[in-house]
Amino acid sequence: MMQPTAPLSLAGQLLLAMPDMPDPRFARSVVLVCVHDEGGALGIALDEPMAGVGLHTLLSSFDIAVDGVADETVLAGGPVEPRRGFVLHSRDWMARDSHAVAGDVALTGSLEILQAIAQGRGPEAYLVALGYAGWESGQLERELASPGWYVSQADPRRLFAMPPEQRWAGAFALEGIDPAMLASSSGHA
After folding, report:
1. Pfam families given for it (predicted)?
2. Which helix H or strand E contains 141, and what residues bound it?
C-alpha cells in the first residue's frame, strides 16, 4: 500500500500577486510564506506600510524606550489578527520562540525581539509587521491551482532593503521578470 505524500512546503518562498489577483486585499502583494504544513499556512506581507503606525509608535505602546532607534516602517502583514505583531529578521539574533523560515530569515513574535531592537542588540536586519496572511489546511494549494499567485524562490532578504512600495516589482525583477510585461488577465486554452 502506498503512503500518501506530504504536500510540498512553500515555507521560505515568496508569493507574488499576479495582475489578475482575484482578492483585492492582495493586489500587488509580496507574501513571505513562513509556515506551510498539513495544518495550513502563515505568511507575512512585505509590501504595504501600516497606516499611521511606525516603529516608535509600536514600541511606545509597550512602554519600550525609543531613544536611539530609527522610526522604521511597520508593515500590514496581512488581514488576520491585525493587532498581533511579528518580526521577520536575520538569524544573527534568535530567541526560543524564533522560527527559522529560510536561509538567513527567521520569524519571531515575542516582545523580547522588540526590546532587543530598541536596546541596539537585536538582529542586523529586520522588518516589523502587524497581522498575517493565513490559509487553512488545503486552502493555499487550492488558491495556487487558480490564477492569482506566482511562487518565487528568490531570497527574501534581498527585499529587506527595498522600500515597501518597490518590493512587488523588485521581487519579480529578482526572478528576471519585468512586471510591466505581465498580462493583466490570464485564461485557459
Report:
1. DUF179
2. helix 139-144
